[in-house]
Amino acid sequence: MTELRARWVCLDVGETLIDETRLWSLWADVLGIPRLTFMSAFGAVIARGGEHRGVFELVARPDWQDLMPRVQAEYGGFQLTDLYPDALRSLEALREAGYRIAIVANQPIVRTAELRAIGVTADVVAMSDELGVWKPDPAFFVTALALMEEPDPSDVIYVGDRIDNDVLPAAAAGMRAVWLRRGPWGVIERTAPPQAALVIDSLDELVKRIAECWTPRVAEAAPGTEKSSTFRLTIVGGAPAYALRPGHAASCYLVESGDEGILLDMGQGAFAALGAYREPLTLRAVVVSHLHPDHMIDLVALRHYLRYGLDRPRSVTLHGPAQLRVRIGALMGEAGFLDDLPGHDLKPGTIELGALRVEARPVTHALNSFGFRVTRAEAPEEAPGLVYSGDCGRPEDILALVRPGDTLLCEASWGTSETVAEEAAHLTARQAAEVARDGRAARLILTHILDAHDPEGSAVLARTVFAGPVELAAPGLAVDLG
Question: What kind and span of H or E run contains 388?
Answer without folding.
Answer: strand 386-388
